[in-house]
Inverse folding.
């Protein structure tokens, strides 16, 4: 069985990759296992960080298969995974590792280079019979003692949202989603709600501090008006106090996704219509807490369709499909294909214009 270890990177990056690995491993048939560095046959390091580069220097001649994550197209590493890392590119890299005889346990490394992130396409199906219902993604196996972390780095930029049709302008009270957008908060802030964990946001790094699960934050998304004075400003030392236990830096785009998922209640976002056909522009990060989404995403990647079409093909209630579409539109993973352009302004009428005008003008 092939074994893998993510090391030589900050904790936020490692947590993000482990979540992504869960989806990639599902597509690969669940054959891969996360282990510690000494047991792993495949090691993934962040070549762009100081600690990651030192780790790569230590292990690249160790007989293990080493995959280096980097933003540079030219690298000293033999096996490269280009940023931004996606589920598809991670699947391709692990497939290359298998081609390098990692599964056979010979300890030799192949000469194949991991494929860089390419155009969005669904990861290859596993070579085993497809289950009758979407598999529940396995939780990533816990690492042994954590490695010393490099200086925190801002999380990778989220994909740009697809252009949204203009909705009628109207005054409304602010909701949580307004504060999740760039510029929504002036600095690190905390919002508290009874029965839910504190919501701690650092807009400087487009991140929040919390656990790996999203459902505990649903009560915030269901709030009505959220006044600015409800937010408590935080200092850098305050942020460090929240980085305890299972809490760590998470990409803020996850909360944007959750807010859009929850707020619609089965109704499409303003500006869209049930007759619109929707498609995924790239493979999304499906959250493990929402196993139905894997089936919806697979259906949308196969062919675009209306919410009713997608619901029928995926055997998922149409309200759940609409909520998933809203979240994917908000985070830039989906687009509508047949939006009607706004009606053109009618041409101004002139007294002598047109056939009848000329006829009238010719009467004497």
């Amino acid at each position: 069985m092939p074994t893998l270890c993510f090391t030589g990177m900050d904790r936020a990056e490692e947590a993000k990759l482990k979540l992504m690995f869960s989806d990639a491993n599902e597509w690969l048939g669940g054959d891969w296992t996360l282990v510690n560095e000494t047991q792993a046959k495949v090691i993934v390091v962040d070549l762009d960080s100081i600690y990651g580069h030192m780790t790569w220097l230590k292990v690249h001649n160790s007989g293990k298969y080493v995959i280096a994550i980097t933003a540079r197209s030219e690298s000293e590493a033999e096996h490269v995974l280009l940023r931004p890392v996606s589920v598809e590119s991670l699947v391709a890299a692990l497939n290359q590792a298998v081609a390098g005889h990692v599964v056979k346990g010979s300890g030799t490394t192949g000469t194949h280079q991991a494929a860089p992130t390419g155009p969005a396409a669904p990861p290859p199906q596993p070579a085993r019979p497809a289950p009758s219902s979407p598999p529940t993604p396995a939780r990533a196996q816990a690492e042994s003692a954590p490695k010393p972390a490099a200086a925190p780095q801002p999380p990778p930029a989220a994909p740009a949202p697809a252009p949204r049709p203009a909705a009628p302008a109207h005054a409304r009270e602010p909701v949580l989603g307004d504060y999740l957008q760039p510029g929504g908060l002036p600095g690190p802030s905390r919002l508290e709600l009874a029965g839910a964990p504190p919501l701690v946001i650092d807009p400087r790094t487009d991140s929040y501090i919390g656990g790996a699960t999203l459902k505990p934050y649903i009560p915030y998304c269901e709030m009505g008006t959220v006044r600015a004075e409800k937010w408590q400003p935080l200092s850098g030392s305050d942020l460090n106090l929240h980085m305890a236990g299972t809490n760590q830096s998470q990409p803020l785009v996850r909360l944007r996704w959750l807010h859009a998922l929850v707020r619609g209640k089965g109704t499409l976002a303003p500006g869209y219509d049930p007759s619109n056909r929707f498609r995924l522009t790239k493979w999304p990060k499906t959250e493990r807490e929402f196993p139905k989404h894997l089936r919806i995403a697979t259906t949308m990647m196969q062919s675009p369709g209306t919410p009713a079409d997608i619901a029928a093909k995926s055997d998922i209630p149409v309200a759940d499909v609409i909520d998933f579409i809203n979240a994917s539109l908000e985070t830039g993973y989906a687009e509508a294909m047949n939006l009607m352009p706004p009606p053109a302004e009618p041409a101004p009428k002139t007294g002598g214009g047109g056939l009848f005008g000329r006829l009238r003008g010719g009467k004497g």
